[in-house]
Design goal:
The chain is mostly beta strands. It has 2 domains: 1-28 and 36-141, no CATH class; 156-281, no CATH class. The protein has 4 helices and 16 strands. The chain has helices spanning 101-110, 112-119, 127-131, 172-178; strands at residues 3-12, 16-25, 40-44, 58-65, 68-80, 86-96, 134-138, 157-162, 181-188, 191-198, 204-211, 214-221, 242-243, 246-250, 253-262, 267-269. The protein is elongated. It starts with a strand and ends in a 12-residue tail after the last strand.
Amino acid sequence: MNFFKSRLLLAFNPVSVLLLATIAGIIAPSAPAQAVTPTTTCSFNSNAGTPNPLGMRTLVTLTEMDGNTTVKYEQLPTPVGGTVAATIASERELILYKTNVAQARQLFLSDPKYYNELRGSSDGDGFKAVNDTLICQSTSGSTPSPTGGTVSALPDGSYRFWNGKATGVLSSDQLLKQGGVLFLFNKRGNQIVGTFGQIDNEGSCVKGTVNGNTFTGVAIPYEPSPNPASRSNTSFDPGGFLKLGRWKKVGNQNQYENSTLDLSRLNRINLGSRKPSSSCP
């Protein structure tokens, strides 16, 4: 953590006073001023239908620019009681150098001191609740997987991937209208449990590991098949994303071991209201 700053803004009518104080950290070496365009910004989106764990007047935003990530903790203006109309707002920023958004999120999840320093307090819930509600946008307006290209680099959490291209938050009705395949999953380390299938069909529960953009593990279709053995080593979906492996009967279940799911052709979208399964049936 090379640079950390905090500022408190008091806005009085008709005069505004800005108090800026550096409270901790080391000032980064100066560099020639130049316009830098953010490559990725991750923030809470109220249109996603998920409550803000910090309340509606507090926001955490991560912005990646020129290989560095700025994490901002912002408390929006609130009225101050008194004879003069006034509002008070605060903002704290932590800059992680040579760190992309995905690495910054993982750092905040694995080491609580960064999130505590950003807020100026160790009280309250940790970063995970905030991380699960973040939606990331690239400069092009798409919703990328903020990992530098691999699903295995994603921080632990819940995710939803689709084979279409999103330009913003997608509702369930929009997904049904456009169709395609959807992968809703939970990730812990390299372990993944989730549901994959066409949006208007039952799909399959999958559990296993991810390496780069390739999932390998067990697939358990929800819909029974009259001849499950015949589906061994075939594609589960028309697009060939999920390829079923060797069929095996386990109890009353038909499962396919050594199945693979190609995630390189899927794009991350907003999580939505439905949570991924924690285990396969």
